Input
Amino acid sequence: MEDSKKPFWRRCETTARDRRNQRRIIVWGLAWMVTWLAAGFLIKFDLIPPGMLAAVAATLVPMVLGIGTVLAYRHFLREADELRRKIEVEALALAVGVGLVGGFTYFLLERAAVVSESGVLVMIMLITFTHAVGVVLGQRRYA
Amino acid sequence: MKNRLKVLRAERDWTQAELAKELDVSRQTVNAIETGKFDPSLPLAFRIARLFQSPIEAIFTPDEEVY
Output
């Protein structure tokens, strides 16, 4: 099939180095999410020993793995194929912008008692989703 | 920015994948440069020039002369 007739996702190819670095992010990210969920479960159902020290220890493990994920992502960005880096940076800019506007809007809605839940998780999901959409749009634009 | 990458590659009978491997970039990057969707960084432009043994200005030309 002629290259331009292929769907855009089949025209998106990464280098072996990018794939290796992406796998590293996935491993760190999965470990982070698993420990974060486990810590949340333990705290919610009072399964950790009472006291400040246990609570801090339960939150420290996912935090360290989260920092590891961020460092793995930074490593990926630094070594990434330059077009891929551009796509990632544009997606990050979009996600930060949407996160800021969404965050400030949510704050006002909370003040006006339109929403009652804390918006932290909503914001995290919004930023993550926007970044993913930004990467797909970028891949499509440059494919 | 316009470029002669596709012509130079065709002269050597290379595929986009082969050129990408030589330049240590993805095939998508080569394709995006050839189609004018993406301008390479200066280090990559130098690598391209070295590979084709041509001066950069013989491969890349600005869309319109600014200076």
User: Anything to note?
Assistant: The two ends of chain A are 15 Å apart (CA to CA). The interface with chain B takes residues 3, 11-15, 18, 81-84, 86, 139, 141-143 of chain A (CB under 8 Å). The mean pLDDT of chain A is 90.
